[in-house]
Write a structure and sequence with these properties.
single chain; five-stranded parallel beta sheet; 13 helices; 14 strands; about 35% helix
Length: about 375
């Protein structure tokens, strides 16, 4: 008898990357190499998107890791096939950490649940050492992916037509209302549903914390901006908080709002991570409670852990409305459930109803123009 057969089965993984070296490193990091001492069991590797699709059907892994640039069928195409034919959590391991991360953001919209930034070999010298340095991020992403339920999540089958912002958006004054949104695993897909449907003309700004690696947040903002009537930007320290604008917290920076003589502004800092993440939603939500009080709405979307729960309670105690995504539509319901348990939630809603409820709350709070 094989002694290993008596042990609990490790979660299974299929790894897809067009680089043989990268496949070997990923096998070592996740599976523990030939000795199979890792936390996971690598059941197969694939060199291109078509091979990945075949291996997923053959081995039925618990998680798939995918590069985006692969021959025959690229990563985006493979995600589309996998999520339509054999849905399962997908972790994107991508070298696109900069302007090219639009493809990674699109991968999240199609159904991938995590992104890990793969350092380009020409920057980091030795690719094996570079990837091994990312082992904690890779392992953490796979752990979170294993907790995800993707069976009921609709994908955005095709990109929406780009939105052209009206010129008058650049002339908006300071925001008198605020919407705070927190999201983690599954968040980019949820944000792509909520943010484009939020209204303009209500005197409100939207402030978003999405747990995401540095450099990807700018591409997330650019992607949401192309889809939304709101102007969406990556937040900058000291920027005035303007109506009809959404601000995405930069990766690796906490974002808060603070009062200033001419009106609230963005404040960024690199103080210690909270709940293991930076940016975290709790500092943002607590600052919204202090600055905007009852003139705010807080939203907690899909994600693991309890970030946002205490901050949403602080917002509600200050008179704001707290909303949470329901279990049925969340990829991981940990964050919204924690927010409910903390007492900060007025309504639990399916993802498709959140934007309309936010719009109704803003209309109720709108301050008449003089």
């Amino acid at each position: 008898m094989n002694p290993s057969s008596e042990r609990p089965a490790k979660p299974s993984i299929v790894i897809a990357d067009d680089s043989a070296l990268m496949r070997r490193v990923l096998v070592d990091v996740l599976g523990g190499g030939e000795a199979e001492t890792g936390e996971f069991r690598v059941v197969a590797t694939a060199r291109d998107g078509l091979d990945a699709i075949r291996k997923v059907h053959q081995y039925k892994p618990d998680v798939v890791t995918l590069d985006l640039e692969m021959p025959l069928i690229d990563g985006l195409g493979a995600i589309g096939y996998i999520m339509s034919e054999a849905p399962r959590p997908i972790v994107v391991v991508s070298a696109h950490a900069g302007p090219g991360t639009q493809a990674a953001i699109r991968a999240l919209e199609l159904g991938a649940v995590e992104i890990v930034a793969k350092p380009p070999p020409e920057v980091f010298g030795h690719p094996r050492a570079a990837l091994e340095s990312l082992a904690p991020q890779l392992i953490g992403a796979v752990r979170r992916a294993l907790a995800a339920d993707v069976s009921h999540v609709d994908v955005l089958a095709r990109p929406p037509a780009p939105v052209v912002h009206p010129p008058e958006l650049a002339l908006r004054g300071r925001a008198v209302l605020a919407v705070g949104i927190a999201a983690s695993t599954g968040g980019p897909r949820a944000l792509a549903d909520v943010v484009p449907r939020l209204p303009t003309g209500r005197g409100a700004a939207v402030l978003i914390v999405q747990h995401m690696p540095p450099k990807f947040t700018r591409s997330l903002a650019e992607r949401l901006d192309s889809m939304s009537l709101l102007r969406v930007v990556e937040a900058a320290d000291g920027a005035p908080i303007v109506a009809d604008t959404a601000y995405v917290a930069p990766g690796d920076y906490h974002m808060r709002v603070r009062s200033a003589p001419d009106g609230p502004v963005i404040a960024l800092d690199q103080s210690a991570p909270l709940w293991g993440v930076r940016p975290a939603a709790d500092p943002l939500f607590r600052s919204i409670a202090e600055v905007y009080g009852a003139r705010a709405v807080g939203v907690v979307l899909t994600g693991m852990g309890r970030d946002g729960a205490g901050g949403l309670r602080a917002m509600r105690d200050a008179g704001a409305t707290g909303l949470a995504q329901d279990r049925e539509t969340a990829v991981i319901p940990g964050m919204p459930v924690a927010a409910v348990q903390a007492g900060g939630v007025d309504a639990v809603l399916p993802l498709g109803q959140i934007a309309d409820r936010v719009a109704a709350e803003l209309a109720r709070r709108r301050i008449p123009e003089r």
